[in-house]
Amino acid sequence: MKVADRITVPTGLIGVVHLMPFPGDLFDLDSDKAVEYFRLSCDLDEPIGCYNLGVMYFDGTGVDASPVLAENLFQKACERGYEFACNMLRPEPEGD
Fold first, then answer.
1. How many structural domains is the chain composed of?
2. CATH code at position 54
3. Does residue 31 contact residue 56 with C-beta atoms inside 8 Å?
């Protein structure tokens, strides 16, 4: 069975939510479902799903924090043209 055969939500809807890496909870999120759907969409090469899953690993939301895994997911999303993910890979400018 392919990953696409297991999805019950249209792929295009999976990436509608764009997560931002912010400390604290901005809204209620069913973390387990979010991880499941973002992982499925990333497996289908949807860059927003890869990015959102990366944010969850970056923040440790619903998963154990993993900067290495987050970076890999941001890289995959960036390679597929998602600029927000590319921005996460750039070093922050140093302060004055």
1. 1
2. 1.25.40.10
3. yes
Cα–Cα distance measured from residue 85 to residue 79, given in angstroms and rounded to the nearest whole number: 9
Distance CA 1, CA 69 (A): 26
Is the pTM higher than 0.90?
Answer: no
The Cα–Cα gap between 65 and 49 comes to 17
Tokens of 42: 């990333």
CA 72 – CA 16 distance, rounded (Å): 21
Mean pLDDT by 10 residues, the chain (96 residues): 40 48 53 87 92 92 93 96 92 70
Q: Tokens for 79, please give them.
A: 């390679």
